[in-house]
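Notes for week 9. Today we move from apo structures to complexes. The key idea is that a small molecule is not decoration. When we ask for a structure prediction with flavin mononucleotide present, the ligand SMILES becomes part of the input, just like the chain. The input block below holds both the sequence and the ligand string. Read it once before you look at the output, and try to guess where the molecule might sit.
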Amino acid sequence: MTKIAIVYFSASGHTQQVAEAVAEGARSVVGTEVSMLRIVGEDIKDGRWNNDGIIAELNAADGIIFGTPTYMGGYSAQFKAFIDACGGIWYHQGWKDKVGAGFTHSQGLSGDKLNTLAGLVINAMQHSMIWVGTGLMPQGATPEKINRLSSYSGAMSQSNMDQANIGDGDRETAVLLGKRVAETTVRWNR
Ligand SMILES: Cc1cc2nc3c(=O)[nH]c(=O)nc-3n(C[C@H](O)[C@H](O)[C@H](O)COP(=O)(O)O)c2cc1C
């Protein structure tokens, strides 16, 4: 079995929906097992995130897909606390050669989401992971279109303030990212 872990933070549920779509895509690949690992603020004490169960799942995974909303043009603080808590793993290069990928959701069409994805890529490079982008040509810019936000380094999605559910195009983009990462990880393990 190829193990894919999706580790993400979501406060108001949009990034959660993206994570579920990514999981759906990854699960569609035969021989893939997916775990959904949600970062929560309750796991942060005195500014430090700790959850041994999540770390154990990540250490056991062949591929890790990171997801966070864009807050103030970057990671949410909760997600950054998780990233920083993985510094000890970095020190021993414990995630070296695992496959990595990422996604971010925000309210603005841009909203400076690229900076968040760049942070995810750099973090993965520090861990010596193998980064997988979307591999998707944009099908157009309207909400039902795949990769409408033209993002290659990771999946971007966007919702308006009064919008409860993510749009179909963003959802499908996330499904395809999950599928691509799972397929790549199966090939890489072979
Ligand atoms: C503190 C804070 C900062 C935010 N900063 C940005 C931003 O820089 N760009 C943007 O497009 N949206 C920004 N937003 C909007 C969120 O990205 C949006 O509400 C998103 O849906 C949150 O994800 P979630 O529903 O998974 O919690 C911000 C929201 C909060 C609460």
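Residues 2-189 form a domain with the Rossmann fold fold (CATH 3.40.50.360).
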